[in-house]
Input
Amino acid sequence: MKLTRRALLKRASIAAAGAVASPAILHWPAHAAEFAYKCGTALPDGHPMCIRGREAMAKIKDESGGRLDITLYTNSVLGQDTAMISQAIAGALEMYFLPIDLLAPKNEACGIFGVGFAFAGYDHVWEAMDGDLGSYLRGIAGDIGFHCMEKCPDHGFREITMKSKPINTPDDLKGIKIRLPVAPYLIALFKGLGASPTPINFGEVYSALQTGLVDGQENPLILIDTAKLYEVQKYCSITNHVWAGIHYSFANPYWQKLPADLQLLAEKHFNAAAMVEREDWQTMTKEETANLTGKGMVFNTPDVRPFQEVLKKAGFYEDMQKKSGDKAWALLEKYVGPLA
Output
């Protein structure tokens, strides 16, 4: 079943109600689950990755006879992204929805998808993520402490929103305080475009925009909607500057504790959830421009070529090649062609 926006909101309300009702489960024997895992994410309940992830968790619990019981905590309930990454590496969190680019401070190759304006569309994205580049990045994540499922859910191309004006040219970004995740490549991208990047965890974005701590932010359309950023931003510029994916992942020690049959069950259902989520994302994205327009947002689609030229002149692509390393860069160019 594909998710329309209406279906997504219905699923989100059911999920929220289920979260409230969950204490009833305490009537079960404490030893009912052989493996009781917590899974954290900063994403809101209405995100399709959360909806499909919960469905996968329910199937895993059912088909394992209750042996593996995973509870999903959304909206940064277990901490901001940086905190959850630390918790998982330290062995205090069993599962996490991992944006691999947030591991760039530990290995700069992980930020390779933050190379601005590299991907022309989804054909290149999925060839790369389901191919050698994705495999390479998942291997690095494994060395850091995360076992990622092979198939990566879609988190979409990122767009720029502003409170006071649209972004039509690189000049419109000069001096602008823009919220970014704690992702070095994205930070370097917007510095190269003349902006003033302000790294803030996602759970704090709404208040930062509301109070004027930052002028704008960048995220996929669906997240702009589900996080209600349209309430504090008026303009949305369709730049498609960076694509983002987020993996279903286990902290290594907890993955290794699972018997082989439970590992196979988790892989089966989380990989299937990722593939359905990709379809959900495409369906929903087509609806979002009209939906957000109805909520007061004003859209524009700038020509991306001037942005690429500014980045080339600023030496951004050469710098990213040096940071990511020859192997990661060669794998990126394998799918998108020469950049530097």
User: Anything to note?
Assistant: Confidence is low (pLDDT under 50) at residues 12-30. The chain has two domains: 5-106+123-152+246-286, 157-242+295-329. DSSP finds 13 helices and 13 strands in the chain.
